[in-house]
């Protein structure tokens, strides 16, 4: 490990952020760099390509990676080397690990949208191939170049689905026919994207058992917000604000609809409940995981969320905060999911490492209204409506 000491007395490490040009990857890289870690990013710019494919754009304008890195050096004095390439190119992955020699890798480099994975067969195959094969290439590169690297993989709470029992933090103690064992918590994912994350988790747990890898699997809830302590230092450091029905998240969509005077579009009854967290907590969770690595051979799972809301509750909260009139419209749910369900998630691991959550507040929602108002001329209202149906492309 790198010997540099952080201001708080911890140890600085060399961190490679995969998907470092993305919505969460970019602010994570800035947060790690600002915390004293030698940070590099890797990206193939596929996320920007999805925008071109779908004919949408981030609500907030974003600079290209070269301009972002230059702006961060100007603002902070810190350099962030950038590697451009694809995890599907195994030779490139090995080359980067041998050149940068990371102590830790944060893995965001996957197609992350459930609706995108459900467009049709081609998008389902692309998502699974890109995510699973890219992670396998990374696993082999770590195991063969330096198995002591701590791999922090961003998973999703969607791996679990909505079981009618408490969701434990990754593992479950089971007693069956008088015998006991500890096994990965059963998964019931709701899209081909979520399934790809389950495959990743199983492959990485296998790598820990067989090769002695160090892995932290962060099953992340739905992230909201667009600003961190680092991104607000300069407009060129801004990260994405996705609002479209494919890549946008529900709170972003509701904030835009409120500002535009459009009805808040709730899918089905709105009883679907999920875990949520502020983008500032996302980057802090990753810092905590990086600075407190898993042991050799350990597949460690944290449920990365701070609170739960139903979709209907979020709509109510946005309506209450907005200074003008707001209507709520219930649409036929394009997804296949339970409209009402039990949802109780254990999420104590990151709090135990020191996370102090930012809970969803009126102030945060108000700040989102301000961001939308300043960029509302960039909104395509048609992109707010769902076009992907979980069973819509099937014949018969």
| Distance from first to last alpha carbon | 57 Å
Uncertain ranges: none
- State which percent range the strand residues make up: 15-25%
Mean pLDDT: 96
> Structural class, please?
alpha/beta
User: How many helical elements?
Assistant: 12
Rg computed from alpha carbons, rounded to a whole number of angstroms: 20 Å
Q: What is the count of β-strands?
A: 14
Shape from CA axes? globular
Structure described in brief:
The chain is 36% helix and 18% strand. The protein has helices at residues 25-34, 46-54, 65-76, 90-100, 114-117, 121-145, 192-211, 250-260, 279-291, 311-321, 349-352, 362-375; strands at residues 14-18, 38-43, 82-84, 104-107, 150-156, 171-176, 179-184, 214-220, 222-224, 264-267, 273-278, 299-304, 307-310, 328-331.
Your description of this structure?
There is one protein chain. 36% of the residues lie in helices and 18% in strands. With 396 residues, the chain is an alpha/beta fold. The strands form four sheets. A seven-stranded parallel β-sheet has the order 3-2-1-4-5-8-12, sandwiched between helices. The chain has a three-stranded mixed β-sheet with strand order 9-11-13. The protein has a two-stranded antiparallel sheet with strand order 6-7. Strand 1, helix 1 and strand 2 form a beta-alpha-beta unit. The longest helix is centred in the middle third of the chain and has 25 residues. The radius of gyration is 20 Å and the shape is globular. The N and C termini lie far apart (57 Å).
